[in-house]
Design a protein that fits this description.
single chain, alpha+beta, DNA polymerase, domain 1, hpI Integrase, Chain A, 3 domains, 3-stranded antiparallel sheet, 15 helices
Length: about 325
């Protein structure tokens, strides 16, 4: 926040709060605390204008430069799915009952997770433009997703079936080593230094349905992992890591599973296998987190249920598996 000196004894402060451009003039140089207090009074006194739709679009626009393309795409998708009548309401007149009715209607045709995503977005918009509003919506009960963690036999069969097809064999090995589809598709040969693979970017869809590269979502996601000599040689001989997008990688895995008669599971479930297998082999939680790019012990244990010198541990685990 910049305090501008316009002339002797005249100061001006301009700031955007809750989507509104505010200007304050002083006949003395104000303190930061004074400006914040006065801005707050003005913002609360002036009713917010515009529909929920216009405010939501403004909210998304304000986040465009700080959030990932996939997150922005998700916001637009949620906004499109919101009832037209709700989007047309003046944001200043929206009540808790309006929100509850929206959630009740949306819950009839969508999963609890989708409902919570929608409610989270609506709440975020209202927090920005109606910070004084207390939101206490009743949401549908969460459904626990039963992850299928592939067995060691499943993994070995998949690797054996693709051993002569580096297009799949390479990314499947990386998935088993905890990499996400988006991370694998963003890798280049320049990311390999000896036996160390650097993960610092991902390939994701933006709001225009275009695949774009972006930095990893969190600091924990940026990491280095050990890869075996055999995998390094396979990549060097092939001349690349993977040419395709995350969707084609999932479809490829599903095709192999069907041919082998293995229960279908998501590519992301290879991360479940990694966490479970590494845990069973005595890898510490700290090293599992570092290898998989989990930002918290809570996240790893809640989602995957099992749960450097991390590079030394990775070498011991992966050399024994492949």
């Amino acid at each position: 926040m910049k305090i501008e000196k316009r002339s002797p004894g005249s100061y001006r402060v301009r700031k955007t709060i809750q989507g509104k451009s505010l200007t304050l003039n002083y006949d003395h140089k104000p303190t930061q605390a004074e400006v914040l207090r006065d801005m707050s009074v003005i913002a609360e006194a002036a009713p917010v204008k515009g529909s929920f739709l216009s405010c939501a679009e403004s909210y998304i626009s304000s986040k465009d430069k700080v959030l990932s393309p996939s997150t922005i795409k998700g916001y637009h998708s949620v906004l499109r799915s919101i009832d037209t009548d709700f989007k047309s309401k003046k944001i200043a007149s929206i009540t808790q009952q309006d929100i509850q009715l929206l959630i009740n209607k949306y819950s009839a045709e969508h999963s609890p997770k989708s409902v919570r995503n929608l409610h989270g977005f609506v709440s975020a918009v209202l927090r920005q433009f109606r910070p004084d509003m207390n939101i206490y919506t009743t949401l549908p009960q969460k459904r626990e997703y039963e992850h299928y963690t592939p067995s060691e036999d499943d993994i070995k069969r998949i690797l054996e079936a693709t051993k002569d097809v580096p297009y799949y064999h390479i990314p499947f090995q990386l998935g088993i080593m905890s990499l996400r589809r988006s991370e694998i598709c963003a890798l280049t040969l320049d990311d390999i230094d000896g036996n160390i693979l650097t993960i610092n970017k991902a390939l994701v869809l933006n709001n225009d349905n275009e695949w774009v590269l972006k930095p990893t979502k969190t600091a924990a996601g940026t990491r280095k992992i050990y890869i075996s000599d055999s995998l390094v040689k396979e990549i060097r001989d092939y001349g690349k890591i993977f040419e395709g997008n995350p969707t084609s990688l999932l479809y490829g895995l599903n095709d192999i599973q069907k041919k082998l008669g293995i229960p279908l599971f998501r590519f992301h479930d290879l991360r479940h296998f990694f966490a479970s297998y590494a845990h069973s082999q005595g890898m510490t939680d700290a090293d599992i987190m570092a290898t998989g790019g989990w930002k918290s012990d809570y996240t790893m244990k809640q989602v995957y249920r099992h749960e450097m010198n991390a590079e030394k541990e990775q070498k011991r685990i992966f050399d024994g598996l492949f």
